[in-house]
Predict the structure.
Amino acid sequence: MKIGIIQTSPVTGDFSVNLRAIVQGYRECLDRGAELIVASALSLCGHQPMDLAARRSFIMQAEAALNALSQEVSSVPLILGATREFDPEEVEGEDDDDAWVEDEPNEGSSGRTMIGVSPYLLEQDTVTLIEEDTVHLDNGMRVHVECSSELSLPVEEDFNILVKLPLAPWFRGELEASEEDRAWEAGQFDSTVICVRAVGSQEGEVYAGGSTVHSPDGVLRGRLPLFAAKNMVMDTEKARPVASLPEPMEQVRQALVSGIREHVSRCGFGSVCLGLSGGVDSALVAALAVEALGPENVHGLAMPSEYSSESSIEDAYALAANLGISCKTVPVTPVFDAVRASMAELFDGMEPDKTEENMQSRIRGLFLMSYANKFGHMLLNTGNKSEALVGYCTMYGDTNGGLSPIASLYKTEVYELCARINAEREIIPQNTIDKAPSAELAPGQKDQDNLPPYEVLDAILGHLVDRNVPAGELLADPECPFREEDVRRVQRLVIVSAWKRAQLPPVLHAGSCPADARVDIPVMHRLND
């Protein structure tokens, strides 16, 4: 059987654009002989409409787009997922949580509209809500459709084809697990399994694509590209070798590049700027931005202070040369001197401390935001997850930006990704990778003066944050490799810096679980466990 797959990158709320993409994909698949065509669950409305979905205009446009799409469908049926309005009584006791658009209201409270995602079968001039377990097509095929990525439970009716329309975004390991589940379902139900995913980015989440078809023997017959819109027809009768999925950090690289491209363009920007400090974080963000947007659309500022080393500026310009991007220098010291002079009377008799250190970061933030405003760039933040979790950042300084591309990567993962980018040739200067990390806000300052070594810090954070292990439980483990003072120190830093994380720019999520970039720790709490 020839199965057409429409893997689009929908724009949230832009029904006309999304409709055109589906129609184009349908026609391409039709021309290639498809006997059944499938699009993703959110291809019409876009990812995560959130409270937009409760607006009457959204509901009406969604219905109109679905009806308009049916006018384009010929004798070959089209299956996709689409939003629809629910009566609260209709879904009382509903246990299929995966059928709900994440973050939309689903409590049925007064004055709120309940919106869910349901599968639809479109045939010529016809839109049919798929409410029964199995849909019988004119060609004799029996199709079961689920707006979910969960493993299927046994159903009463037999079917030839199982269609999966996942709503969930990509995260590390998710594609591998999904393909294993789809292969199991194909063998379990002796059916062809079609899994169709959209691509794109919304609210920091990245959607990977990589739609698949498994034949009834559990063999993967085809996979569409990752992180790219594509329409394809797959023949389940023809065995063709399918390449393995990219290894996890390569998926991370592709996800971040895709996320930068989508976020910047859909926020209305064509170019970005960032501070180039000569360190690994800014170097990695610059390299990813160039891959996403092209070197002509990436602009760097080197902002040396009296504490900056010559090698930092040299490394920043070497990176810019390797990437082919512009880099200009704006010294911090003149403004820093002026600010200190202005505050001298107020601070009379007080020794310099982190206040003066943070002034420099805030001056750099002022320079970067002014540069972004004047030339119409989006400012990319260059902070990483290790720094964000322990508050090793300056509010309204190096926390500025319209997007934080690597804030879901630990510092150790930043180094790992830098090594991958340098695999074929040196793009990120080796000195940038080799030297000790430093904010260069004080003489001889090093990150490890204020934090445990990053390999220790990241490992502790992995337990306390990613796996949500209480500090006391971690320390009670006889095989705990960490010093108690380090664990308790990191625990305290995570707690007291929650207010900073609440004000960070949008973060691209590239973690190993759906929520590990969003640390759900209350801003005000004192739990000591």
About this structure: Residues 93-111, 514-518 have pLDDT under 50 and may be disordered. The two ends are 58 Å apart (CA to CA). Residues 358 and 394 are 6 Å apart (CA to CA).
